Amino acid sequence: MSVNDKAGELFDVREFGALGDGRTDDTVAIQAGVDACAAAGGGIVRLHRGTFVSGGVRLRSHVEFRLTSSAVLRGAAEVASYVPDERVPYPWINRSLLFAEDCEHVAVSGSGVIDGGGIQFGTAEGNVRPVAVRLRGCREVRISDALVKDAAAFAVHLIQCRQVRVEGLRIDSQVRPNNDGLDIDGCQG
Predict the structure, then answer these.
(1) Strands across the sheet with 104-109, in order?
(2) How do residues 18-33 score in pLDDT, each as one tens digit?
(3) What does pLDDT average to over the chain?
(4) Please, which of 21, 27, 155, 168 could form a disulfide with 151 given CB 3.0 to 4.6 Å?
(5) Burial of residue 131, with CB atoms counted within 10 A of its CB: 0-12 exposed, 13-18 middle, 19 or more buried
(6) Are 176 and 152 in contact (CB under 8 A)?
(7) What pTM value is reported for the model?
């Protein structure tokens, strides 16, 4: 499944100001890369060589979000910086690190790491714990090869998506209770 016809067009998040130094909040730069990619008609947003600390990033149609083997996307400590999904009936899991809604031809790929930073979030009743990847109502979805680790809640949550392909996904996420690996809700082949 090709994400789009411009699959070769590359948008490196460093070109948008991301540092990938493991300390700086790169959320704005990463989102700028995703938005520029979508505005250009699609392509690949690449994280390469570094640890990119980020709050929530909203993925767009015709965008492949790719982490190379030398890249880590690490969830920020501030829960308010994650993308909210008010349609989730449970307020303690209604935020996401990577989020897409009603998109088409969207992908999360590469052999890098998506680190949800779950240890940063409490487990007491009422504490909000972000999901690492949530896609809602999307079609022609591909999730491949990445390692999703240490999510505060679910690692990957697919809700009412169609034409989904998950392959080579690795999950290592047991730092908090209710750390479902792959939750598939109401999706169709």
Answers:
(1) 10-12, 43-47, 63-67, 104-109, 139-144, 162-167
(2) 999 999 999 999 999 9
(3) 92
(4) 155
(5) buried
(6) yes
(7) 0.93
